[in-house]
Amino acid sequence: MAIAAVAVGTPAVASDRSVRWRRLVIPTVVVATICVVGAWIGDGVPTWLDARVRPWSDDVYDWTVQNNGDHWLFTRVFEPIADTLTATNDAVLWVLRHLRWPGVLTLVALIGWRTGGARAAIVGMLAMAGCGVLGFWDETMVTIALMLVAVIVALLIGIPLGILAGRSDRAERWLRGVLDTAQVMPAFVYFLPVVVAFGIRVPAAAIATVVYATPPAIRLTSHGLRSVPVVATEVGNSFGCTSRQLLAKVQLPMARRAMLLGLNQVIMMAFAIVVLASMLGVAGLGGRVLSGLQRVQVGQAFAPGLAIVFAAVALDRITTGERAKRGDRVRRRMPAFARGRAHIATIVTVGLVVAVAIIAAGAGADDFPSAFTIDITEPINDAVRWVNDNFRTGVPVVGGTGSFSDFLTLHVLNPVRDLLVDSPWWAVVAASFAIGWASAGWRLAALCGACFVGIAALRTWELAMDTLSQVLVIIAVSVLLAVPIGICVGRSNRAERLLRPLLDAAQVMPAFVYLVPVIFLFNIGRVPGIVASVIYALPPCIRLVSLGLRQVPIAPREAAISFGATPRQELVKVQLPMAARAIMLGINQTILMVLSMVVIAALIGAGGLGLETVYGLTKSEIGRGVAGGVSIVLLAVVLDRVTQSWGTHPRRT
Length: 653
Prior knowledge:
Layout: H1 2-41, H2 53-66, H3 72-133, H4 137-167, H5 169-184, H6 187-198, H7 202-226, H8 230-238, H9 243-254, H10 256-272, H11 274-278, H12 285-294, H13 298-319, H14 327-333, H15 342-362, H16 377-391, H17 401-422, H18 425-440, H19 442-457, H20 461-491, H21 493-508, H22 511-522, H23 526-550, H24 554-562, H25 567-578, H26 580-596, H27 598-602, H28 608-618, H29 622-647
């Protein structure tokens, strides 16, 4: 029997040894080959390795400008889209202005009451009223009209594509690259083509906002569908559900929480680009922020920036209320006529809003009362001066923000940058290949190596390594902060309610607003850009870590508790492993958000690819800007695929 067992087991042992040998030898041979060929070529990127993207991009842009008014693509495709967007925006703005401020506040309160009960109604109405109190009511209506159009278009595109990606692995693989490009490509890169294709003002701003805000809707819809327990799907199939019925009756209802988070992120992302959209000729709050920043007046920029936060919070609260999370309990708090009678509630809501608007028109309440407005410009300027005087130097132990900036630059940023910039380009390619192979096998290894070779072919190698060094530091800091905070938010409803407004403010407040005080505190250079990027990248990771923990089914948790697990053991052994997909998606979003800040950070001394992109576009060297933008996308693809492989599938060869 023993001899037979050994005889039977020998082929399996030999096979395992063969697999392990192949996994070790093949990547070693490939990496060694890359190093030998690279050493023969030399440390510098060879001149023949040139993709010639710059002249090609310049030629395409010149053709676009020359054929703007004649080609059928413009007259039959782009112009109708631009006209439709303009007409829709004008119609929404006309309705908002004719409702007047009492009608708008009533509408916000009633929708919030319908979707989330009294709390959502009060928070939404107070947030919207805050825009008027700050003295920016008309600008807020202009901004909200544009945001409503952009958010609706983003959802009409994002939800169907998210459903497709959630139900098809092939579609998910194809869409991931497109989403990475849309989310990471600096907005400055596609501003000029958008303006040429759709004109200035509303159409260009709406299209740019849609491109920037749609990816979260697709990703989170797909994530929600893929997070539906297999048992639920099998039960639906056992009862004879068709594919369409399974989607509508089982998968979408169970993915509702993730889809609502997607709606929240679309709204936040749309409002986050308001200031950039104002550069395309759109008035509103973004224009007021830009005007204050051009004068280097933090108070004049902060006040409309705070109004942007209030508008985003109001729109978010009335669209993602508690009803979606605790529908039955909120529905019981509704009046009797509204329970189960959506059409009656809608008719009553419209009637009340119209009645209030008519009364307001008769009373001459066209503008928000000036008696209720508050000017916070000078207090904000005084606060910035006080912080600068008291925290820049002389702080016990740490020495102040200036000392912290010097320490971070000299002991963290410079060593990482020197390591990457001074390393031969082929050594970085070989290292990326090895990391990709160790993470998910030869496909990812080939992709990582190809992306870095592509960066070399774009002639942006040193700039890319400079940017990569900053991005790695920002990602490390962001993840170290976001994961513990996300765990706290995911395990405590009180912490979630407390931090949600802060996360909204951090994600929606235009980065330009807090860049000015950050510069005062940390000097011009890479550190202010890192601080601003961390502030901007934290909220999505915190939200997704919290979402992953809250989506863990109750049955495994109860089983762990029944076996005597402590809260810490339950977290480490049950919740975190089951929330791994959501956590890695949060890290993925952190990476993409950080890379989307590269251009803004470059404006205050960060340098790297962001500065290359800005310089190319401001000097009308479109090819130079495109090369910088594409290099940023290639970095994003590598970081995204590697981190996603850590949280999904085991390594395959």
